[in-house]
Amino acid sequence: MVKVTVCGAAGGIGQPLSLMLKMNPYINELSLYDVVNVPGVGTDLSHIDTDTKISYHLKSDDNNTGLSQALKASDFVIIPAGVPRKPGMTRDDLFKINAGICSELATGIAETCPDATVLVISNPVNSTVPVFAEVFKKKGTFNPRKLFGVTTLDSVRANTFISEIASNEADKAPSAFNIRVVGGHSGETIVPLFSVCAPHVYALEDENKIDALVHRVQYGGDEVVQAKNGAGSATLSMAYAGYKFLHAVLAATTGDTTIIESSYVYLDDSIPGAKETKEIIKGLYGGESLDYFAMPVVLSKEGIKEIKSDILSRVNNKEKELLKICCKTLAGNIAKGASFSQ
Ligand code: NAI
């Protein structure tokens, strides 16, 4: 029996994500939680004739016990709760509001379902994941193998955008690519590693095209924010990406140990590959090593089995420079999140 809870289920991401999860054969119960509008979303989804059972909970239910009811016995909690960006805003601008929401949800998880695997979508991911970790540490429930910042949309965009450049080349549709994106999840902290994991794309022999492609992946979210013109940020592509990542995490619980996905994770020394990753980052950055980084991770029944540190030792000089810039910004983002709950 697998129970998944979506926190922020009535939102722009929450609704299509919940729809996809209702169709996932691994999930027996889908619990929907929000501060508004979730009875409508839950009732609507409950009419779909897939076997996944729907329950829905408002924060205000039964003297404000909605959160603990929603989270009770959850195996996985996925979190697209919080405010999205408007034109002119960076993900960092969202921190004040979203860190408070994340702290509240983390407290609920620690008290109600401390063994759950937690997937954080709420931005700025670079800082909200440390907020979760710090709350869990305080509560004595932190399991670094089961806390994931969802950065899948960066890889999804990288696969799509590179395929557009290669559109005249044979066998170069988006599905031909599996671009690993490392670092963090905002602007210059997003580092796509095209040199390591792409099949050769002739059009990219032009240096300017690579620079433009990297920039597009780093700032692809802005295209959506601008096109939506004040109505929010990516929701449908993010719901797809969140679903893709959760599906991979769920599939790994069946015992499959061949699944590798990129995610923003805590580099705990107990996880194989974490120490090596920190050493490589330290060497590139020249400063202190970082405790969090988006990396390809091998998934297993128990969460992260291994961090694939070797990918960082295969990057080219241009990507090394990008990683240096990434580390500088990321260090500040991490410190901001970590100090929030202190
Ligand atoms: P939205 O405003 O449409 O939905 C957010 C939902 O969260 C709303 O239904 C709201 O009622 C709910 N909410 C607010 N406070 C809450 C609380 N205390 N507990 C539970 N639910 C609460 O926003 P959207 O577009 O769905 O985005 C959600 C978050 O996802 C934003 O922070 C956004 O920046 C982030 N995002 C992350 C991406 C990623 O790649 N990780 C990509 C795109 C967006």
TrEMBL record:
Q: Show the GO MF annotations.
A: L-malate dehydrogenase (NAD+) activity
**What does UniProt list as catalytic?**
H185
A biological process from GO: tricarboxylic acid cycle
* EC number(s) on file: 1.1.1.37
Q: Which domain of life is it from?
A: Eukaryota
- Name the Gene3D superfamilies on file: Lactate dehydrogenase/glycoside hydrolase, family 4, C-terminal (3.90.110.10), NAD(P)-binding Rossmann-like Domain (3.40.50.720)
What is the enzyme's main class? oxidoreductase
Residue ranges of the Lactate/malate dehydrogenase C-terminal domain? 151-340
Mind telling me which residue stretches traverse the membrane in this protein? none
Annotated SUPFAM superfamilies = LDH C-terminal domain-like, NAD(P)-binding Rossmann-fold domains
Which positions are annotated as binding substrate?
R85, R91, N123, R157
Keyword DNA-binding applies: no
Q: Which reaction does it catalyse?
A: (S)-malate + NAD(+) = oxaloacetate + NADH + H(+)
The entry's keywords: NAD, Oxidoreductase, Tricarboxylic acid cycle
The residues that the entry says bind NAD(+) are G8, A9, A10, G11, G12, I13, G14, D34, N98, I121, S122, N123, M238
Which residue ranges does the record assign to the Lactate/malate dehydrogenase N-terminal domain? 2-149
Record's GO cellular component, any one?
Answer: cytosol
Task: State whether it acts alone or in a complex, and with which partners, per the record.
Answer: Homodimer.
- NCBIfam families assigned: MDH_euk_gproteo (TIGR01772)
Member of which family? Belongs to the LDH/MDH superfamily. MDH type 1 family.
Quote the protein name from its UniProt record.
Malate dehydrogenase
